[in-house]
Amino acid sequence: MQTYTYVSKGKFELMEKPKPVLMHERDAIVKVTLASICSSDLHIKHGSVPRAVPGITVGHEMVGVVEEVGSAVTNVKPGDRVTVNVETFCGECFFCKKGYVNNCTDENGGWALGCRIDGGQAEYVRVPFADQGLNKIPEGVTDRQALFVGDVLATGYWAARISEITEDDTVLIIGAGPTGICTLLCVMLKKPKRIILCEKDENRIHFINEHYPEVMTVSPEACADFVLANSDHGGADVVLEVAGAESTFRLSWECARPSAIVTIVALYEKAQLLPLPDMYGKNLTFKTGGVDGCDCKETLRLIAEGKIDTEPLITHTYPLSKIAEAYDLFENKKDGVIKVAVEC
Ligand SMILES: [Zn+2]
Ligand SMILES: [Zn+2]
User: Fold this and answer.
1) Which end of the chain is less crowded, N or C, counting CB atoms within 10 A of the terminal residue's CB?
2) C-alpha 151 – ligand 1 centre gap (Å)
3) How far apart are CA 284 and CA 13, in angstroms?
4) How many CB atoms are located within 10 Å of the residue 68 CB?
């Protein structure tokens, strides 16, 4: 079968590999129908994910149809349309039982698919702990509507969930990339008084203004003054930092009001300075990433009810045979791309 493979730093290649087989009684084999490219795939390509194993098939955001299940799998069966969770988790350890599945202590726990084991930019993928990692797509929900459930939407949902947002709040979201937009969609479900979205890219601002006209948008340069003028208590009640730059990290706590919650969703490429003397007396609560991706059933229900719609994020579609072109487009932010769907 065709797979998109991490060969070495800077090099991904479409490659022929044998179809995966069940290796454990809790595994499932999924025939991938639609996959997507995530910025984490680019991090692997650039060599900034040291635990990524050369030779693995990349891709950790996909949907498909269950082809085969191991003898211990009970939640899904062959023929089921499913979302695949980016995180592998056992469901039984201390952290899994508390819902902190990102810190599952199983040796395969955490981000394994498309990083340490073969992922889903391929015709088939083997999913360990299939009862945890797969969720049935409700009838009436298309593959395109469900494509982001296991990764970027899971992240946005988790970020909104832990941020303790109330209906009186002014919420500032920094960054309107795919994860920022998914975060926005999930913050909107909490019905805060105001949402301000800070973004530097004009294409993305245009996308937000077009699709979500009720959301206020602002550039990073104007952000601090704008938030001050458009909040009730001298800053945002909740800030979600989804951009991942040094300047945006600083902006996140500068724009927060005293005793605000600052949720750091972004993955930074280097350490950030937390200048405690500058924020002394501000009494901020910081919450940090990564995603505990265990709410997929709930997000699928919200999609089925029409309360979350991530389909507009798919701006381009390619066949697996042309995935290198899709990467080029996504990596170089060509043609106003937000997300790419790859038909496998
Ligand atoms: Zn991802
Ligand atoms: Zn676990």
Assistant:
1) N
2) 5
3) 45
4) 18
- Please give the Cα distance from 167 to 92 (Å, whole number): 35
Average pLDDT of the residues of the chain: 96
Adjacent-strand bridge partners of 83: 63, 135
Q: What is the DSSP secondary structure assignment for residue 311, as one 8-state letter?
A: G
Residues with CB under 5 A from ligand 2 (ion): 89-90, 93, 96, 104
Spacing, Cα 109 to ligand 2 middle (Å)? 6
Percent with pLDDT over 90 in the chain: 96
Q: How far apart are CA 17 and CA 118, in angstroms?
A: 11
| Ligand found nearest the CA of 85 | 1
Of all ligands present, the nearest one to the C-alpha of 114 is: 1
pLDDT over 70, % of the chain: 100
What tokens were used for 315? 């701006």
Dig out the tokens for 291 from the structure.
Answer: 């995603």
Cα 94 to averaged position of ligand 2 atoms, centre (Å): 7
pLDDT digits 0-9 by tens, 275-299:
999 999 999 999 998 899 999 999 9
Q: 112 C-alpha to center of ligand 2: Å?
A: 13
Ligand nearest to the CA of 98: 2
Tokens coding 335 = 């043609």
Do 172 and 237 touch, CB atoms closer than 8 A?
no
Ligand at shortest distance from the CA of 49: 1
Residue indicated by tokens 């990102």: 102
Encode pLDDT of 128-168 as tens digits.
Answer: 999 999 999 999 999 999 999 999 999 999 999 999 999 99
Residue whose structure tokens are 């990596």: 331
Helix (H/G/I), strand (E/B), else coil: 201: coil
Residue 36 has what pLDDT? 98
> What is the pLDDT at residue 186?
98
Measure 145 CA to ligand 2 centroid, in angstroms: 28
- Model confidence at 268: pLDDT above 90: no
Contact 75, 134 (CB under 8 A): yes
Segment 323-328 mean pLDDT: 98
What domains are there in the chain, each with its CATH number? 2-151+292-343 (3.90.180.10), 154-288 (3.40.50.720)
